């Protein structure tokens, strides 16, 4: 296999996918059979600067270069050859957010990520004007909020894009987005596959009423569907990926996509009545629709698959970060006892303990809100754990409470989709860190949405693999072959999945937990109101007595 893989690598019969996630930048190289040949990654974290979540552009390129270098090292170690070229390339990243550049290509304000919820006035006004839900995190909500706040930079904007669009632009010179990522910037007209012209005109009017002359259509990236060409790697772009100069230019790129779209590809969830849940720093569900929804719901936003088909998205800003924090605390405790447990072992132990917890969490409640959560109408978050005086405080129930909490906001949105709109699912696929411990996260998600949930190794490399597959699709598919057919017949043929039916006791327990969770939301709101965010007191910065 190594000989065949080495031959594929040296003859450029490969595709490289790079995805910039919320905590990790990952690069995956796949061969002609779409199997991963090598991987590389780099960790990074967002920063809260002036009450806004951001990443620096310097961190973007440092992480990308480290990931590509690590992948090249993996190629060398596994296959004994040097990585000097690839057959196709694709870039994916966190959707939404706000990256505004002037005519010289200079960033006008620090990157505002999807995690920010300062756009409440904007989102509310645009939703009312457009007649569709415009969530806080969408790019157009960020832009209009900047207009309303009379930010000086707005009049100097030459173009707007997402994180994936920015990286793609720097690699190719092309200002273009895949339709799935574009649909998280501004609403797409299903009939034309372009930005909705009526809404574009109305936005320009709203901006003019606020004293700003804008031509939004001229600021937004172009749109391309899966399978269409989207430029080639330039010499400058190759140097950005590999400053050592080993990577050749001229590689064709597929349209850049958002992490939601690559998650759909990585789980073969691009056909109607299929869906997937991705659970990491955020947690979101993507459900491919058979038709239009009956009405507008603020809990649901409408985006598209990378092929342009309509998708209902339930997006929760807060996912597993609070779980990570608790696992870190338990790891510190284990080390204080002299036990050197690695993080994987700690997570496995804690998650497995949750299986023995009380089905309804025994009166415990947790809110995993590190940041604001629009679905529950919170502009900021305060992580919170509480219990009634008669709640037993045991490890299993404590962990089940935090696992249920990580899915609770998703459940609120899925109730709207499944119960209010009557949307049916044939399959829900789960992927992400929450589902790594076998039979735990999968079981609790099945209970949360009362739907069979499948897991498998098809999404083991996540969105970076998904965008690599989209790159391969753009360069190696048969003429007129659809993305759905390509995935079914070429990529996922023969793949096995493990499907878990919802347990009635778990379903009843989750329902009881949700009743208390919703009733307790005013407590979380009070925490936001009364507990300020500031520099935490630590042993290093605590004032010492005189």
Automatic annotation (TrEMBL):
The keyword Kinase applies. The keyword Transferase applies. GO terms for biological process: D-xylose metabolic process. It comes from Modestobacter roseus. This is Sugar (Pentulose or hexulose) kinase. SUPFAM superfamilies: Actin-like ATPase domain (SSF53067). It comes from the Bacteria. GO terms for molecular function: kinase activity. Residues 276-474 form the Carbohydrate kinase FGGY C-terminal domain. CDD domains: ASKHA_NBD_FGGY_BaXK-like.
């Amino acid at each position: 296999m190594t000989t065949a893989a080495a031959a594929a690598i040296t003859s450029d019969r490969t595709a490289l996918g790079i995805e910039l996630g919320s905590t990790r930048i990952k690069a995956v190289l796949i061969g002609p059979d779409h199997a991963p040949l090598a991987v590389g990654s780099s960790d990074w974290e967002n920063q809260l600067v002036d009450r806004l979540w951001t990443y620096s552009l310097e961190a973007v390129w440092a992480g990308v270069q480290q990931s590509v270098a690590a992948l090249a090292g993996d190629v060398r170690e596994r296959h004994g050859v040097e990585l000097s070229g690839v057959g196709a390339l694709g870039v994916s990243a966190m959707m939404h957010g706000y990256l505004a550049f002037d005519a010289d290509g200079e960033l006008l304000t620090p990157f505002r990520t999807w995690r920010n919820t300062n756009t409440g006035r904007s989102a509310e006004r645009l939703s009312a004007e457009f007649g569709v839900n415009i969530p806080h995190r969408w790019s157009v909500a960020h832009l209009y909020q900047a207009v309303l706040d009379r930010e000086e930079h707005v009049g100097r904007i030459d173009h707007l894009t997402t994180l994936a669009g920015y990286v793609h632009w720097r690699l190719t010179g092309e200002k273009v987005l895949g339709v799935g990522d574009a649909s998280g910037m501004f609403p797409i007209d299903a009939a034309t596959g372009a930005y909705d012209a009526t809404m574009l005109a109305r936005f320009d009017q709203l901006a003019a009423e606020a004293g700003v002359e804008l031509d939004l259509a001229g600021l937004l990236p172009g749109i391309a569907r899966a399978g269409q060409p989207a430029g080639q790697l330039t010499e400058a772009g190759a140097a950005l990926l590999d400053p050592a100069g080993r990577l050749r230019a001229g590689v064709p790129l597929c349209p850049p996509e958002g992490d939601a779209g690559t998650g759909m590809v990585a789980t073969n969830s691009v056909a109607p009545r299929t869906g997937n849940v991705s659970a990491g720093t955020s947690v979101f569900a993507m459900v491919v629709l058979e038709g239009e929804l009956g009405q507008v719901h603020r809990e649901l936003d409408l985006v598209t698959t990378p092929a342009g088909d309509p998708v209902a998205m339930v997006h929760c800003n807060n996912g597993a970060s609070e779980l990570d924090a608790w696992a870190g605390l338990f790891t510190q405790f284990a080390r204080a006892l002299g036990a050197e447990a690695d993080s994987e072992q700690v997570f496995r132990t804690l998650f497995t303990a949750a299986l023995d917890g009380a089905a309804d969490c025994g009166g415990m409640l947790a809110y995993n809100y590190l940041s604001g959560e629009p679905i529950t109408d919170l502009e900021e978050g305060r992580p919170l754990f509480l219990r009634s005086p008669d709640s037993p405080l045991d490890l299993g129930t404590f962990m089940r409470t935090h696992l249920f909490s990580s899915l609770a906001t998703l459940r609120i949105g899925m109730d709207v989709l499944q119960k209010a709109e009557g949307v049916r699912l044939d399959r829900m696929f789960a992927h992400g860190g929450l589902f790594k411990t076998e039979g735990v996260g999968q079981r609790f998600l099945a209970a949360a949405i009362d739907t069979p949930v499948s897991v498998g190794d098809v999404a083991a490399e996540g969105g970076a693999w998904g965008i690599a597959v989209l790159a391969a699709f753009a360069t190696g598919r048969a003429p007129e072959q659809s993305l759905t057919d390509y995935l079914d017949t070429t990529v996922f043929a023969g793949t096995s999945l493990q499907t878990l039916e919802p347990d009635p006791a778990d379903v009843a327990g989750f329902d009881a937990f949700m009743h208390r969770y919703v009733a307790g939301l005013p407590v979380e709101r009070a925490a936001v109101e009364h507990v300020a965010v500031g520099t935490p007191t630590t042993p290093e910065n605590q004032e010492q007595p005189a």
